[in-house]
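Most newcomers find our protein records easier to grasp once they have seen one. The structure tokens are whole numbers drawn from a learned vocabulary of backbone shapes. The record below serves as our worked example for the rest of this section.
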Amino acid sequence: MKNLTQNLKKALMAIAIILITSAAFAQKQEVKKIETVVFNVGMDCQGCVKKIEKNIPFEKGVKDLKIDFENKKVTLKYKTKSTTKEALKKAIEKLHFKVTEAKL
């Protein structure tokens, strides 16, 4: 009987450790959620492109930046835990560009 009680305690401890570990892992996965947003940006020249390339990648949460000058679009991949598309829009507007979110 004593042996059965010890085995039951060990089993419960193992289950508790598994649950705690899986909960921590799930939180880390949520933190790493990355979304994509596309903005129409009023760019006139390659200098505009360089200005965006120089400043926007350093905004908090930005993981990737692609600029399509021909179609005047800026595509950003960002961590949702670190920033929002509204904050990224404001960051581009601070560089004196007209910005609207593109409809996908």
